[in-house]
């Protein structure tokens, strides 16, 4: 081959690759704009990613950016409506809340949400080991059914202990249904789950990974309902690390809670809708929603279950977060391992801080995931400039997820303050209109701050250029973090 022919062939190949890159960039940009037309900042971020990295960026958009899996999301929405019709769900009137917080109660009931219920008994757990022991004890006392739903179930000692408790129920004739997310629990204890199935339990995986490019919409909820009377939810999954046994993180700080009373049917309905969508088994009846006509109320707390997901245009948890922050007059205290807010949530926090509200954010010191951690540091810049106090938890892993406002309102559950939780994942929180519970959470928060370091805005502003470049690069992925 002559040198001239080699050069001509080389430039033909280059031209071919450039044309392909241009086609991918054009198609990817059009898809980003079309699929994310309701989220302009996400569309801009993905368009830039595809344009600057035509091949890799297009691949990333197919995996993560194409968030609306239209057929599956439409099916989930239709199944949820069908299940509500089948069960004839009748929530009754919403309990009265203080007038100042009425808008949050109404936002929580929007789009088939659950009402505020009174007379709830709530026990808050600040450590995973105690919550896990209480869940095991409740399962072992079950008489009719146990419904469990977790994002993660590990094949370790904690996973074996939990599944053994479920097996014990199944052997006693108790109905057992265990729903896992197929991505979060990709390495689940399959052998034990097969044994549980053989002994009469039911196990299902939410949105199984049929197409490896469709992994974006995940069920991040953590729900345990026993006999329709006792519920557990919060941030805890099933695994040794949640009990403080992780070799790297050691101590694991989480927030989980046990609830009895009128809010439990909200947990039950949420689980059963997800179960129906996954297995096509529709359940209803008094055994799953037992009445309490003659029993005294187990507690005094006003509580409201708030579920959200990509199958609904109205993002209930995100809207209650933003509305609560904007109504704050004294303080907004947030704990979350991941902080990648959208524009609305970011603006609400900045506005609150500039208005003189004591806004604090408590996050990670040692990250378990570097991409969202670095992206969060980009957003810290605006927060610090507005007067938000940013803390990093040094004792171990900070996995709690809650927002506290003015010592009167709290939202606790599975949702982080990031785009993934507030827009892409199926999540579940419970908002409490209860000063006593909120004060309990605030006291735990103040204890957490004793194990934390506060970021100095001036020192942070002088961080190395290489760090800033990494933060800017990672924040391009903020729509899916």
TrEMBL record:
This is Cardiolipin synthase. Residues 215-242, 394-421 form the PLD phosphodiesterase domain. Keywords: Cell membrane, Lipid biosynthesis, Lipid metabolism, Membrane, Phospholipid biosynthesis, Phospholipid metabolism, Repeat, Transferase, Transmembrane, Transmembrane helix. Its EC number is 2.7.8.-. InterPro entries: Cardiolipin_synthase (IPR022924), CLS_N (IPR027379), PLD-like_dom (IPR025202), PLipase_D/transphosphatidylase (IPR001736). It is found in: Cell membrane. The chain crosses the membrane at residues 14-36, 43-64. The keyword NADP does not apply. CDD domains: PLDc_CLS_1, PLDc_CLS_2. Its main location: membrane. It is a multi-pass membrane protein. GO terms for molecular function: cardiolipin synthase activity.
